[in-house]
Specification:
The protein has about 240 residues and is mainly α. It has one domain. It is about 75% helix and about 0% strand. The protein has 11 helices and no strands. Helix 3 crosses helix 10 and helix 7 runs antiparallel to helix 11.
């Protein structure tokens, strides 16, 4: 397969991941785009504008389905995480970050599965500091590699949200966080005119991915939705650990 096709597949995954199951599958987007561009730094810069456009589209597709009470503290925490991430964006090993996120995703998914088996009726209600801590980790990992999907998916799915509330709340959180990331990305040179020009070619893949993801979200019954997310998180976690 020609390397030029991978960025288009990555852009499709951006839309699909946002509107479908809002989970670990989104971790594929940056590596796929990186296959078709000169450097990983270029890929990181290209992905952010695509994410923001996809976030706006997904928020529109799930308009007013969100629960804003769930994102106040995570948003506060993500600002700190973004600031820390920008300090390391040019120095931290991609391998170290990917392995850490993989182990974290597998560990937390295992805890949630155990809880669902032993306490199926119990719903997690996070304290303010839980939300702030999760937001900090999300901001940090998202700044370095747009890799906060598993962290936030686990945080939201643990609260046993309706599948549409889950996707809508996740989308509006990431829209705001990605907008917070935009100024430091521009000032550090990660995004420039050439990056935006390259992104224009990939834009048509976003609505296609969102349409497919939205359709699958409607098809999967609520009682199976969490387990679809768990499977995607486990597969992604294993992939991150093995790479």
């Amino acid at each position: 397969m020609h390397s030029e096709i991978f960025p288009y597949i990555g852009a499709f995954i951006v839309g699909f991941g946002k509107a479908g199951f809002a989970s670990g599958i989104s971790l594929l987007q940056t590596p796929l785009i990186a296959y078709g561009v000169p450097t990983a730094r270029t890929a990181i810069g290209m992905v952010l504008p695509l994410l923001i456009v996809a976030d706006f589209m997904t928020v529109g597709a799930y308009w007013k389905k969100w629960d804003l009470r769930l994102i106040y503290w995570p948003l506060a925490g993500c600002i700190l995480g973004i600031a820390i991430g920008m300090l390391y964006v040019n120095t931290m090993s991609d391998k170290w970050l990917r392995h850490s996120l993989g182990y974290l995703a597998l560990f937390l998914t295992a805890l949630l599965l155990i809880r669902d088996i032993w306490y199926p009726a119990k719903t997690y209600r996070p304290s303010w500091w839980h939300g702030a801590l999760v937001g900090t980790l999300a901001g940090f990992s998202s700044t370095l590699a747009h890799a906060a999907g598993p962290v936030m998916a686990l945080f939201f799915i643990a609260q046993k949200l309706d599948k549409r509330i889950f996707v809508a709340t996740n989308a509006i959180f990431f829209l705001l966080m990605n907008l917070f990331k935009l100024p430091p990305y521009i000032s550090s040179g990660l995004i420039d005119g050439a990056i935006l020009k390259a992104d224009l070619k990939l834009l048509p893949m976003l609505p296609l991915g969102i349409a497919v993801g939205w359709g699958l979200n409607r098809l999967v019954p609520q009682k199976y939705f969490a387990y679809v997310v768990y499977v995607l998180l486990i597969v992604t976690g294993v992939d991150l650990v093995l790479k």
